[in-house]
């Protein structure tokens, strides 16, 4: 799709979940005058290989702020989730107008020290189109 050709790809790197972190919070800010389309992917690295937990698209209108909360710890009946190591990957079209920060937070909304990655700390990833010929 032509819309995604100019995207830039970023990662937090693999982070160790702080003990009181239950959610990953992604804060999105669009400072531009055009809508932005972004995608995030959250991977569980607890077993040494990346397992995709969730992926979603976010549309930001001009001068808009949004929050995305992703649960990484659950307990109770049935399946449980207890991510020890995680990574957030982002696809962003226009990085200069979009600010993305990632926080680890508790169930009560307290930000966990050490699970914060600010937009200037995101690591660029090289994109490779595996569908094209070599």
In summary, what is this structure?
This protein is mainly beta and 134 residues long. It has no helices and eleven strands. Helix content is 0%, strand content 48%.
Output the keywords.
134 residues, Hypothetical Protein Tm1070, Chain: A
Structure description:
This protein has 134 residues and is mostly beta strands. The chain has one domain (2-124): Hypothetical Protein Tm1070, Chain: A (Sandwich). It is built from no helices and 11 strands. It has strands spanning 8-11, 15-16, 23-30, 36-44, 51-60, 64-71, 73-74, 81-82, 85-92, 98-105, 123-125. Strands 1, 2, 4, 5, 9 and 11 form a 6-stranded antiparallel sheet that branches. The protein has a 3-stranded antiparallel sheet with strand order 6-3-10, with no helix packed on it. A two-stranded antiparallel sheet has the order 7-8. β7 and β8 (81-82) form a beta hairpin. The protein is globular. The model is unreliable at 130-134 (pLDDT under 50).
